[in-house]
Amino acid sequence: MLSETEVLQLLEMVKNEHLDVRTVTLGVSLFDCVSHLIDDFRNRIYDKILNLAENFVSTCDLIGEKYGIAIVNKRISVSPIGVCGGCFNEKELILVAKTLDQVAEKVGVDFIGGFTSLVEKGMTPGDKNLIKAIPHALSETQRVCSSVNVASSKVGINMDAVYMMGKAIKRAADLSADRDGISCAKLCVFANIPEDIPFMAGAYLGTGEPDAVINVGVSGPGVVKKAIDRAIENDPKLTLGRLSEIIKRTAYKVTRVGEIIGREVAEKLGVSFGIVDLSLAPTPNVGDSVGEIFESLGLKSIGVPGSTAALALINDAVKKGGSFASSHVGGLSGAFIPVSEDLNIADAVANKFLSLEKLEALTSVCSVGLDMIAIPGDVPAETISAIIADEMAIGVINKKTTAVRIIPVPGKKAGDKAYFGGLLGEATICEVSHPGCSNEFIKRGGRIPAPIQSLTN
């Protein structure tokens, strides 16, 4: 239970510090919709999601109004289409994506995730068809998101899949060239993907999950920044250890809010409650930035020396506070560092404090990876695959989730601006060093073996 003081602090967070529940995501299993007939499969998907999610958005709005806390996004995740639609060809899988888009529009959610394949150790014909379908599936729909897991700490990195994803990203960008390659903003390539992510674009419902489940993603970078600022104003000589404790306590309060709302939504809908993902997920709004937390801690900007240590402190404190607040923490949980979705981080790239190489270093301690990074449109697919491979290696060796959501912007070069709009924001296009120099390495394919520490059985 929260004390009276903590309740008052929460009210202040809601009123002035951008506290919200960033997303409530309804997970829907599609395994009982499986059919070898494409029309039958599509109809079953549509009917099941409609039946479960018909009152989902209105329920979220009602409970958000009850507590006076905005639920910013309402989303759906489904079982990996690469598994339950593995018998279909590329064109048929594009039709499945369009069905997901239609039912998402019908029930009023922002996004639907699960156009997903799990190929860390190898690919079935169905997985290959799904990856080939991704560019058209994302460019011809509005709400569908896709994720592909190409690596894990247990089995290593599937370099054949990594190469395919580099080509898929290039193709998706070309098909949405009139919108700065925005289709790629709905596509994540993962190592060690969790089965219960509520945040897009990575959300899908894992094979060990319930038939229907509510997963919640809380946020609050503005809340954390304000808490640090208040503490330093009262005591300018606060050590980093003390500031870590303040972040931890703030994360505890934010997580409690998320779990209370998530459980009530689940109860109203008559489905299971799953997890709280306590990630600090920023928006392009002023005062709602992870990057600003670095400045509050004493750095001139994210990207300068000390940034990796600061991010490690933030990430660890958030996880500790959240895990104390809830026994059901999951998803990604920590700190996101998306470029275009965080105004401060986007400015750091524009002002040359932050490069692609430094972003990669930061991903060794953050909760996701290279996120919403715009690069020149002429970067070859092999170089994109090499960037993915590097990020997957960080995840595999460190036994953590890493991901790449990278956007080659057709017709633009380093230093230009890419405009995505809304929650996705805008970004200065990052320079990519030595494009084309990794081609031979990537084309070798095969599987990079798992590290020795994978032998834990």
Q: Topology of this structure?
A:
Blueprint (H helix, E strand, L loop, with lengths): L3 H13 L4 E8 L9 H16 L2 H12 L3 E8 L2 H4 L5 H18 L3 E8 L6 H15 L4 E9 L3 E3 H17 L11 E5 L20 E7 L2 H14 L5 H30 L2 E6 L13 H6 L10 H19 L17 H8 L5 H7 L7 E7 L4 H18 L3 E8 L7 E3 L6 E3 L10 H5 L3 E2 L9
Parallel strand pairs: 1-2, 2-3, 3-4, 4-6, 7-8, 9-10
Antiparallel strand pairs: 1-7, 4-5, 5-13, 6-10, 11-12
Helix pairs in contact: 2-5, 3-9, 5-6, 6-7, 7-14, 8-9, 9-11
3D structure, described in words:
The structure is a single chain. By secondary structure, the chain is an alpha/beta fold. The chain has a domain at 19-337: Alpha-Beta Barrel (Anaerobic Ribonucleotide-triphosphate Reductase Large Chain), CATH 3.20.70. Helices cover 44% and strands 17% of the residues. The strands form 2 sheets. Strands 1, 2, 3, 4, 5, 6, 7, 8, 9, 10 and 13 form an 11-stranded mixed sheet that branches. It has a two-stranded antiparallel sheet with strand order 11-12. 56% of the residues are buried.
